[in-house]
């Protein structure tokens, strides 16, 4: 990636020197933005490598606890409507994953209500609060923080390179 950025930079310098009209080529202007894209991609990869695994393990632990609890609370009767959603630990995990995404969870809650589980609304609301609002936002926050840190580090590195170039040229301002 660094080679590509350097190559395009030298290409732009050469083209603008020999043919001034090439200075306005849009694709060469876009290629200058690749440095910021590279910073974002590196930040995302570092985030995945360092922090996201911890958050995923935390989410899986919480899902395991709630999955076992949901299985014992809602799958006691094999003839109930909600048994298909809570009958095994795998079914419980799938239902809880839908709760974490907070998309399409209402049919599962309606089945629990039809089966007479009045406390299921508290269980569902509590898990959606923890899984969706806390863990998912923690995930997003970690990504944003790492992108911000990577951008700041890159800006400091670029400033250091400019100072070094200025010193090597004899510009001591």
UniProtKB/TrEMBL annotation:
It is found in: Membrane. Residues 1-153 form the Ion transport domain. GO terms for molecular function: voltage-gated calcium channel activity. Keywords: Membrane, Transmembrane, Transmembrane helix. The chain crosses the membrane at residues 6-31, 52-74, 122-144. GO terms for cellular component: CatSper complex. It is a multi-pass membrane protein. Its main location: membrane. Pfam families: Ion_trans (PF00520). InterPro entries: Ion_trans_dom (IPR005821). The keyword Thylakoid does not apply. GO terms for biological process: flagellated sperm motility; sodium ion transport. The keyword Metal-binding does not apply. This is Ion transport domain-containing protein. It comes from Rhizoclosmatium globosum.
